[in-house]
Amino acid sequence: MTSHGILELSNYLVTSFLQLNIGQGDGHYTRVGAVGYGDNATLQHSLTSFTSVNDLLSRFNPTIDGTKGSNIEAAIRLAQDQFDSQGHRPNVKRVIILAASHYEPGTSEDPTQVAQQFREDGGFLITLEYVQEHGAQVPILADLASPCFAISNSNADLHAVDLQNKLCMANCFCLTNWEPYMINPTCNVPDGGCYYPVLIPAAEILAKAFCERQTGGMLVKVEDAAKAIFVNSMYSNTKEKTWIGLEYSPLKFGYVWDDGSNVGSYQPFASRNISVTCVSQQPGSGFLTNWYPADCVEDHMYTCQSTPCSADKYCP
C-alpha cells in the first residue's frame, strides 16, 4: 500500500470512529490500538494510547515501514497480544479490523489458521478491502473475516456507517448461560435477543418479576412459529408447559405482551378463556406449538428474554 493509500485508509477508519466514545474508562468506552504490517508487524498504538476522540484525531498516524510484504499472520498475533495485556477489559468483545490493499501469498505464514483460531475463541475479525486506483481486489480477506463481517470499497456505496454497523454487530452478545437467538444464523450474532430458561416452576407473577431483574428482561415474547420452536428446544421435557409473557387485557379487549405490544397474527391457541389472564405454551405434535389460558397462580417453568449486550447496553 502506498503512503497516500495509508493516509486515505486512516481517514476512513477515524471517520468511522468519530461516533464512538473513545477512552480508557469502564462502561460505554471503546479502546483503539493499531498494528502496521509489511514483511513484519509493528505495534504503533497500544489499546491504552487514546483517551478521547480528539486525542485519536490528533495522534492516529499509522505508517508503513517501507517493505512490500503482507504478513497478516504476524499482525493478527500482535493484535492478540494486546488483547492479552492489561489494556484489554475482559468484559468486552475483542475486534480486529484487518485492512489491506494487496496480499502476497508465500512471502509469510498463511494467516488462515490464526484468523480461524481468533474467531473460534470468540473474537470478531472485520476485514476492509481497500482497492486503490489501478489496484486489484484481495480475495483472501473475505475468507479471513467472520461471517458477514467483510466490507470493501469496491462497492461504490461504502460509507463510514458500514464499518460502524459491523462494530455494533460485533459488540452484540449474550451473557454466560443465556442462549442467543439468531434470526440470521450465518452472522453468528444474537439479533433475535438472549434467552434464559428457568428449570424450576414458579407462579407467573414471580416468574415475571425474576425476569425483570435480569438485565431489564421480561418473560419471553413469542412472535412466530420459529421462535416458539426455539423456546421449546431449551427444555428437555418436550411436553412441558412454560409461561410466556402474554396476558389478556380487559382494557384492550385482547392479549398484550409484557413489553406493551399487542399480540400479532401468530396466536396458536388450543383453547381460549378470557376469564383467566395468563398464558402458557406447550409443544404440540410435529413442529406445532399450542398456547393455553392459565391461572396465574399455576406453577410452570419459564423463559426470560433480554436484549443483548451491545454498544447501547453495557453489561458489567
From TrEMBL:
Q: Which residues cross the membrane?
A: none
Q: Which CDD domains match?
A: CLECT (cd00037)
**Domain named VWFA: residues:** 1-167
What's the name of the protein? VWFA domain-containing protein
Lineage runs:
Eukaryota, Metazoa, Ecdysozoa, Nematoda, Chromadorea
- InterPro entries attached here? C-type_lectin-like (IPR001304), C-type_lectin-like/link_sf (IPR016186), CTDL_fold (IPR016187), VWF_A (IPR002035), vWFA_dom_sf (IPR036465)
PROSITE patterns attached to this UniProt entry: C_TYPE_LECTIN_2 (PS50041), VWFA (PS50234)
* Pfam families with a match to the protein in the record: Lectin_C (PF00059), VWA (PF00092)
Q: Which residues form the C-type lectin domain?
A: 190-305
Species name for this entry?
Mesorhabditis belari
